[in-house]
Write a structure and sequence with these properties.
Elements (H helix, E strand, L loop, with lengths): L3 E5 L4 H17 L2 E8 L15 H17 L4 E7 L2 H12 L3 E5 L14 H8 L4 E4 L1
Parallel strand pairs: 1-2, 1-4, 2-3, 4-5
Length: 135
Amino acid sequence: MFKTVLFPIDQSRETREAADVVTNVVKKYGSRLVLLSVVEEPPKDAPSADPMVSPEVVAKLLENAQSLFSGQGIQSETLERQGKPAFTICDVADEIGADLIIMGCRGLGLTEEGVSDSVTSRVINLSPCPVLIVP
């Protein structure tokens, strides 16, 4: 049913909590697991303290996530992309032919405008495949 599962990751608590659901789904369906982390483009006006703008931090995050799943007996592929997270996640889902995106209910991308403008909300609206949101 879910041949390819895309799991976008950041450093949020919600991402760590969603990892258990990803493990269960991938094991149940024998899915291909693709881990994605997006290096955000820093705002032109101001330097950003956001760790997700550092390619080194993102690379380490992907490495740690891959190790976590490997410890569960799950092989995974990693992708690192640059751009706006919601659009990049949906583009990658389309590119790899994802059957499901699994993500936490809120990541580090919650904006000043609130939940309606969060990365998760945008992915739900733009995704080319079903999205499973883990509360």
